[in-house]
Write a structure and sequence with these properties.
Layout lengths: L13 H10 L11 H17 L6 E4 L6 H11 L4 E5 L6 H9 L6 E5 L6 H13 L1 E6 L6 E6 L4 E6 L7 H5 L3 E4 L5 H14 L3 E2 L1 H9 L5 H17 L4 E2 L1 H10 L9 H13 L7 H7 L4 H14 L3 E4 L2 E4 L1 H6 L33
Parallel strand pairs: 1-6, 1-7, 2-3, 3-6, 8-9
Antiparallel strand pairs: 4-5, 10-11
Bound molecules: adenosine-5'-triphosphate (ATP) and magnesium ion.
């Protein structure tokens, strides 16, 4: 992905992870938003603590940057267990997993990020460990090899995935609790930004907090990043105060508009509207016209544009909705204005042709 689009990217670069670590809430009570998951998780944890047992295995699913890793750390903290970190891609062989499992201490929390990317053979070893607290260690090679069962102390697996649908059912079934994280409201993000400003020692006004929140695509990771950019601007170009004017100036420098769209997002919408009459236009043609790879348009720009109702994917290509025209300050062609109902079956901008299969 081009670095220039990174300001609203949902992915974190390696250097950003350190900045993120400093902003992670440490307790469930400080974790803003996600009231359902928070309540469910607090029940699971409190009950386990009351019984003096390790909590059931927890699966956390949801889009990037919404707090899965943060929650895993909170869980370890709340149950006073040591956190052991690994990830699906880091476990290439069953031996790697056996080594991790056999070093676990009672009450440890084993966090497996991107658990949908575990190798099949490792998955089977994990089933046994999760269910029976046992790992079969292979000793020797070839025909003489034997497997020795090694009992494991009680521990808790916390799995995180952005693709819960890719987890095989037997693995999913071994989690006693699954929490699904969803996008945050502007109010929740405002609260997160305001709290983090204190941690960053930034003098942030309430209006600036909600301005940043409303441009953050429902994602705390993006909100935190925009907060840091506004802080940069205030320090270098402003008075040091993060007020509404500073927030707006900073976000305009970084080309994040009022709806959280960046340059690529707007380029895509503009191309669909002005060059292709609102669409439908095929992905490849669209990508060429904005000078990007089809994959970048599809994975970086489209998900948010579709989610926010600016773009619809139809079997014949991408179409702009009236909202897109309005957002760009453009007047849609007459046939798109208030007449989407008269074009039943046509490529109406209202998305009448939306194919649910395209969204799976
Ligand atoms: N509810 C929240 N309250 C406060 N900060 C949050 C919350 N959720 C996430 N954050 C912050 O957002 C950033 C990203 O969160 P985190 O790394 O937990 O996301 P993730 O779901 O693990 O993302 P990925 O799928 O990319 O691994 C962190 O800095 C974290 O502190
Ligand atoms: Mg994570």
């Amino acid at each position: 992905m081009s670095e220039e689009y990174a300001v609203v990217s949902v992915e974190a670069s390696d250097s950003e992870r350190a900045a993120e670590a400093a902003l992670r809430p440490k307790h469930l009570a400080d974790f803003a938003g996600q009231p359902v998951v928070r309540e469910q998780l607090s029940l699971v944890l409190e009950a386990a603590l009351a019984r003096g047992r390790t909590p059931d295995h927890v699966l956390l699913s949801g889009p990037p940057g919404l707090g899965k890793t943060t929650l895993a750390m909170i869980i370890a903290n709340e149950v006073d267990g040591s956190l052991r970190l690994t990830s699906g891609p880091a476990i290439q062989h069953t031996g790697d997993l056996a080594a991790v499992l056999s070093s676990l201490q009672e009450g440890d929390v084993l966090f497996i990020d991107e658990i949908h990317r575990l190798a099949r053979t490792a998955e089977e070893m994990l089933y046994l460990a999760m269910e029976d607290f046992r790992v079969d260690v292979m000793v020797g090679k070839g025909p003489g090899a034997t497997s020795i069962p090694l009992p494991l102390p009680p521990f808790t697996v916390v799995g995180a995935t952005t693709r819960a649908g890719l987890l095989p059912a037997p693995l999913r079934d071994r989690f006693g609790f699954t929490g699904h994280l969803d996008y945050y409201s502007v109010d929740e993000l405002t609260q997160i930004v305001a709290r983090n400003a204190i941690k960053l020692d930034a003098d942030l006004s309430r209006e600036a907090a909600s301005e940043i929140a409303s441009r953050s695509r429902g994602t705390p990771r993006i909100a935190n990043r925009l907060l840091r950019r506004v802080q940069d601007w205030a320090q270098v170009r402003g008075s040091g105060k993060l007020d509404l004017a500073a927030a707006r100036s900073a976000l305009s420098v970084f080309e994040v508009d009022a709806k959280g769209l960046d340059r690529l997002d707007r380029a895509v919408l503009e191309a669909v509207c002005t060059r292709f009459g609102g669409g439908p236009v095929g992905l490849t043609t669209l990508a060429i016209s904005v000078g990007e790879e089809p994959e970048t348009v599809e994975t970086v720009a489209e998900p948010y544009l579709v989610r926010e109702g600016f773009l619809v994917r139809t079997p014949r290509g991408r179409s702009a909705t009236p909202l897109a025209w309005e957002h760009l300050g453009l007047v849609p062609p007459a046939e798109l204005r208030g007449s989407s109902d008269s074009r039943s079956g046509g490529a109406s901008a209202g998305g009448g042709l939306e194919d649910p299969l395209l969204f799976s």
